[in-house]
């Protein structure tokens, strides 16, 4: 009886080890250039015009983004794939002003485009600003607009929207239009 229990436990442990191994193997940085999880060919890079000084905006730039793509079944870029991104944030003068945390999941794929739901937080000196939005990646889209959904510290009662502009595969500009 003890031998059967041991062998059963050993079998369950082996299945668990294999499952964890497969899960870890599917979480990779992906192959080829990516823009927030989407193949770089699905993103158009643009230089956005600077906001006028009369606009109540905060502009930050994420540079040298670290991205991890999780390839959910089926293998390859598909609905349900996830992405996480971390990056330092810089102001327009190049000084480091905070950091960015992003999580997203792809909700639909089409012949030449993909759509994903993204939540992201910019943590700055005065607090954090959180936003969420749906991005459509195509060879003509250079970014997307997301709703500011909350904040902490100085930004606790803030709402508004943020323009997310893809400059290169590893550089993204954020222009926050905040209202109180």
Distance between the termini: 69 Å
Tally of alpha and pi helices: 1
Order of helices and strands: HEEEEEEEEEEE
CATH architecture of the largest domain: Beta Barrel
Biggest β-sheet: count, sense, barrel?
8 strands, antiparallel, barrel
Q: What percentage of the residues does DSSP assign to strands (E)?
A: over 45%
Query: CATH superfamily assignment of the largest domain?
Result: Allene oxide cyclase-like
Helix content: 10-25%
Any overview of this molecule?
The chain has 180 residues and is mostly beta strands. The chain folds into two domains: 1-28; 34-179, Allene oxide cyclase-like (AOC barrel-like), CATH 2.40.480. The protein has one helix spanning 2-26; strands at 27-28, 34-35, 38-39, 57-70, 82-90, 96-109, 114-124, 127-137, 143-151, 159-168, 171-179. The strands form two sheets. Strands 4-5-6-7-8-9-10-11 form an eight-stranded antiparallel barrel. It has a two-stranded antiparallel sheet with strand order 2-3. The protein is globular. The protein starts with a helix and ends with a strand. The model is unreliable at 1-30 and 48-55 (pLDDT under 50).
